[in-house]
Hints:
Blueprint: H1 2-10, H2 23-53, H3 55-80, H4 91-115, E1 129-134, H5 140-156, E2 159-166, E3 169-177, H6 192-197, H7 199-207, E4 211-213, E5 234-240, E6 244-250, H8 258-278, H9 284-287
Antiparallel strand pairs: 1-3, 2-3, 2-6, 4-5, 5-6
Helix pairs in contact: 3-4, 5-8
Amino acid sequence: MEAGVLIRSLVPLSHSRRPIYPSSLSIWASTETGVRNRGLKSKREWVANWVRKNDDIVRSLPIYVGGASLLAVLLNRTVSGIAPVADASSSQSRADLLALGLAVTNILNGLVWLSIRPKSISVVTPDGLECKRVSHHLPDSVVSELLWSWESLSDATCCRSLVIIYEGLCVLQIGYAGISSADEIEPPSVDVDKLMKGSIYSAILKSGSQNYLANLSLYPGKSELPFLPSKTQSVILQPLGDKGIMIAGGDTVRGFTASDQAWITLIAEKLDSTLAKVVDKIPFAEKS
């Protein structure tokens, strides 16, 4: 028995242990991955900027490649001493015909790239008068919030006109407004009754979601928005709950980004909550 105890004491027990990796290895790996990703991103941005700056050269590049390939095929056929007439039984002739077809395809592709160019989008100054109309019966805190909304949108987005209708009342008309044919000094006010009877207002309240008119000139219902300047490029129609609408006019086609649209939605929700507490207290004469 003592021998057994002695043997057990002399022979060490081996336990399988999982290797422990220091946390610095994972940190180093994540850092290396981040540096590699940033490097690839910077290279892609450099290539994109170069292509943007040398647009004409890039569009003409297929013509140069196709022309050089065509000359190379003809030169190779001339130097090699092959008969100029194509022979279907010759592998060289079949290869030359394939190369000629690819060269001509490159040339045609370059001609298409040169003939089709994307239309440049530029900022268009609204053709109208600047105005600032705020309902006189609103509390100062609400007026400050309305003006803050306008300043935020005009500074951060392409918004140049803003109209807010709530409970049949035009609580705010600010920015550029349309020019009245009768009076070019004072911009026309918003005809709330006519707007509410139109298809735009009813469609927005019925859907309950934002409608983005990225190119207002292509929209047939723009005649229902005569209070906007004539050169308004894009419009966002944002419902204020089920009681009103916010109309934001921009100076650029497709100028409102996805983040701008989300930002306008959040502002509309805040204004709806604020105006719902005070509009009911406005005298009826002011609403009419």
